[in-house]
Structure formats: C-alpha cells, structure tokens
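Lab notebook, entry 372. We have the chain sequence and a SMILES string for flavin mononucleotide, and the next step in the workflow is to get a structural model of the bound complex before anyone spends time on docking refinements. Request logged below.

Task: model protein plus flavin mononucleotide, output structure tokens.
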Amino acid sequence: MNILSSSGEEGVCVEMTMVCLSDFEEYAKQHLSKATWDYYEAGADDCCTRDDNLQAYKRIRLRPRILRDVSLNDTRTSVLGTEISFPVGIAPTAFHCLAWHEGEQATARATEAVNTCYIASTYSTCSVEEIAAAAPNGYRWFQLYLYRDRKLSEQIVRRVEALGYKALVLTVDVPYTGKRRNDIRNQFKLPPHLMVKNFEGMFQEQTSTQEEYGIPANTLDPSISWKDVCWLQSLSRLPIIIKGILTKEDAELAVEHGVQGIIVSNHGGRQLDGVPATIDCLPEIVDAVQGRVEVYMDGGIRTGNDVLKAVALGAKCVFIGRPAVWGLAYKGEEGVREILQILHDEFRLSMALSGCRNVAEINRNLIQFSRL
Ligand SMILES: Cc1cc2nc3c(=O)[nH]c(=O)nc-3n(C[C@H](O)[C@H](O)[C@H](O)COP(=O)(O)O)c2cc1C
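Result returned:
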C-alpha cells in the first residue's frame, strides 16, 4: 500500500503509505480533476448533513468488555440470507469511470474478491450486463430510480433480474436532485466519451432537451409514492429494499408494504440539508422495525470503529459511498480492495478491543448512551 507522491520539496518523491481511508481521500483530491472531485465530494446547500454524518460517529463513546479471549474474531455476517465477509458493502454511487477507466467493472471485481455486497447504481458508466460479466460470482443488488416513463424502469428491472442481481434497492430520497452548489458553478457534465450506460440509445430523440447528471432533465418521477412500491412488487420477485428512510414513521410504512429491507440514508448529505446524521436516525428505526426486516445504513462510514458503532446500534450491514470512489481513483480494483481491507482490519481490531468475538456479540451494551 505504498505510492509515490510529490512532496513539498521540488522534484522529490516520497513514499506515501495508505493507512486509513482519509489517505485515499487526499490522493483522490490531488489526482482527480476539480469538477470530478467536486462532484463526488458534494453535499446539498450548506453541507451541514454531509459533514454531520461523519462528526456524529465521533460523538459516540464505547463501553468495551475485557478478558473475553479475543484471540479469534469472526467478522462474517449475512444480508438477506447470504454470507458476506464483514458488515460493509458498497453503496450505489454514479459514474465510476470518472475515477478509473474500468469504472464499475473494477468495483464489481473488488467486491467479488472481498466477498461482500455491491449495490450497482442506475447511473453507472458501465452497463448492468458489463458489471455482471466482470465479476460473475459477485453478490450484487441493483439500485433503482423510478422514471416518469415507467417502461424505462420496467426494462431495467427485467434486465437485472435476468442477470442474477439479488435485490432491488429503490432510492426514495430523490424526487428532485438536491442543490449541489459546486456542480452548478462547474456546470458539471459527463465528458462526451462517458454516458449512463444502462440507458444507451434510449434517450436519442431527446438530445435537444436539457441534461441533468447524464440523462435528460425531468426524467425522474417526483410523483413517486408507496403505491409505486406495490407496482414494483407486482413486476418482480426480487426482494425490495427502500433506500433513504430517516424516520420511524416511514420505516413502519415500509414494513407494512412488505419490503425486505431498509437503508437508513440521507444520500451522503446530497439531498435535503439539515436532516440528522444517519447514525443518529438509526436507533429509532431499528426500534420501530423490531427485527421484522433487515435495517442497513450508509453515510459517513470512514473507519472500522464507525462500523462497530453502527452495528452496535442495530445496522445489519453498512455501505460506503465516497470511499469506494477514492479507492478507484487511487488504483482501480486494487484500490477498492485496499479500502475494504483496511476497513475490515480496523473493524476486526475494534471488535477485539471491545471484547466482541463475533458480530452477534456486538450490541447496544457497547454504546455509552448517557453521553448521547
Ligand atoms: C458521487 C456520489 C454519487 C451517488 N450516486 C448515487 C446513486 O446513483 N444512487 C443512489 O441511490 N445513491 C447515490 N449516492 C448516495 C450513496 O449511495 C450513499 O447514500 C452515500 O454516498 C453514503 O455516504 P458516504 O459517501 O459518506 O459513504 C451517491 C453518492 C455520491 C457521493
């Protein structure tokens, strides 16, 4: 995990050791174009929620147990009945080819190698077919938006079902895209050689209309409601996971509508600014759901210690968004693997230092609630 990077002194190269995820962040910041970096980094409005997603973990204190023989630690867990190597997967993020030429294919191979779950974004710069072919044995879910033209949504659902994707992750926090100031300033656009590959050729007749993040503006359907969840269930036998729930009320509705999972998410702070950090929303949702469906979360996970806290507060698995892209920017597949490996090692160490021998032993007793 060593790279050469220019030091402050002119012409001198120093070896940089990648120790933690912020080292990859720094690398990405230095090596990506400004518009691409700004796009990945963006939060909505004042970025309060984006930043709070990270800060909130730092406010939580742990209550470790001692003398519990932690010579062997088992980090494995399962999602929807499938075993994964540790409770961290890859959240859906758009446009991986902006960070690395092989894009989502590299991400898919890395997650296959590490044996965890990859949620492929609708806004991928490789098609769902290319992603599946790159990592034929990988465990994958597909993230879905609903479009005004339901035929588009229907077609992609049929494709991913046939390709062996194991669940549909319906993102529900984007009736409209949040206001990301730097993207507006930069007039962010995909370069001409890249496109939202899943919809290649499907928008040809609309090329004259205004574009938003690679597809014609106003393609997303802001009228989406719970009845569309029922529609999706009528269309596909795949488990449905709702991504973007932040309250117990909506968690209850999700369970009532028969979904199989919930991802507590505020879209990495890119949608409604001023909502709480996801780790602060998690307990009320876990309490409301009472084990009837699996609860996952994303937002601000940067260390194995963060993973431990989220699992202690009831997350079955957490997902990383931006860090995967930093890994890609660093070294493609290898970079994403390193990100996952570092998180895995840190998680294992935090488990051991807090006296947890396996994931089932991680529970709320680990959290010092009097400080929250
Ligand atoms: C650059 C970028 C692109 C994203 N694209 C999508 C997307 O296409 N679909 C989606 O459901 N969420 C998308 N998200 C949100 C992520 O799935 C996830 O909720 C968020 O990144 C988690 O926060 P983190 O980046 O702090 O880990 C995106 C996030 C980022 C940073």
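Notes for the group: The chain has twelve helices and 14 strands. Worth checking against the assay data. Residues 177 and 271 are 7 Å apart (CA to CA).
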